Amino acid sequence: MAGDRLGPGDNACRVEIVNGTFCARVFKSPQPPFVKGGIFPKEKIMTVAEAKIRVGVSACLIGQNVRWDGGHKRDDVVADVLGRLFEWVPVCPEVEAGMGAPREAVGLYGGRERPLMLGNDFGTDWTEKMILYSMKRIEELIALGICGFIFKSKSPSCGMAGVPVYAEPENGLMRLGRGMFSDAFMKRYPSIPAEDESRLNDPGIRGNFIVRVFDYYRFLQEGSCGRSGEIPRGA
Ligand code: SF4
């Protein structure tokens, strides 16, 4: 069973903690051709890791060299602890929007609701490209069936809160807002569990995030099974 991916006909029913490990109790539904009354669901238990739930993650947090300076911001809790539970879908909005790495660092300027994303050194305006990229990429992530997202804190693209939004270039006045990509993601899909990596050092917040991700995964499966008889990930 270990390493198997859930496939059509599988239906995860609930999350339990068995010997300190998050586990999913899964019922294998009859596969076609279905003989009425002749096949009964088989039960199997898998760990959350075996379920291979896809979760989006800011790529720098798992050690990818995508930051403006060509480095990363690997986070041990994300990469080593949660990396054993989830199948990552790494995303770097700035690289994927075309900025490359290394690159001119960017910041947010203007109003908090509709800030501009500008290069800090030369004022390159990335606003439009980031907006268009975000709209497209978010829908791709949904199509991949991600059940959560871990964002890098305080980034002008990925930060969930506390991101400086400057009144004007070279003006010290600022407010605190959200990164452009994370803001678009959370507005478009507010029910998908999202967490700031800096909060996941707290075991309580971490455990709560794991359960929320699995609840969302189960919700997707049950919702999809109810409509079409197939789980959404089509693995
Ligand atoms: S915080 Fe986001 S945009 Fe910045 S390097 Fe990490 S993944 Fe890329």
As for the number of domains, it is 2
Ligands, ions, cofactors: iron/sulfur cluster
Query: Major β-sheet, in short?
Result: 4 strands, parallel
Give the integer mean of the pLDDT values.
Answer: 81
Task: Note the beta-strand portion.
Answer: 15-25%
C-alpha end-to-end distance: 15 Å
Strand order of the largest sheet: 5-4-8-11
Give the overall form: elongated
Secondary structure: number of strands: 11
Please count the helical segments.
6
Helix fraction bin: 25-40%
N-to-C SSE string, H for helix and E for strand: EEEHEHEHEEHEEEHEH
Structural class: alpha/beta
Which value, in Å, is the CA radius of gyration? Answer: 20 Å
- Uncertain runs are 1-13, 29-42, 225-235
Describe this structure in words.
With 235 residues, the protein is of the alpha/beta class. The protein folds into two domains: 10-50 and 209-228, no CATH class; 53-201, no CATH class. It contains six helices and eleven strands. Strands 5-4-8-11 form a four-stranded parallel sheet. A four-stranded mixed sheet has the order 7-6-9-10, with no helix packed on it. A hairpin with a 7-residue loop joins strand 9 (163-166) and strand 10 (174-177). Helix 4 (127-143) crosses helix 5 (180-188). The longest helix has 26 residues, at 203-228. It is elongated, with a radius of gyration of 20 Å. The model is unreliable at 1-13, 29-42 and 225-235 (pLDDT under 50). The site of iron/sulfur cluster has 12 residues, from helix 3.
